[in-house]
Design brief:
Blueprint (H helix, E strand, L loop, with lengths): L1 H10 L6 H23 L2
Length: 42
């Protein structure tokens, strides 16, 4: 997560539009699920 932040923050106009779109569409839901599982562990 930190790595993609660095790319987005410092890449400016050299970032391929498909990269953030792929993250938004395909990777946020699994990330949210993993975070919720960690949160709900006893």
């Amino acid at each position: 997560m930190a790595g993609i932040r660095d790319i987005l923050a410092h890449g400016y106009f050299s970032i391929d539009d498909d990269v953030p779109w792929d993250i938004i569409i395909n990777r946020l839901t699994p990330l949210k699920q993993a975070c919720m599982e960690l949160k709900n562990r006893n």
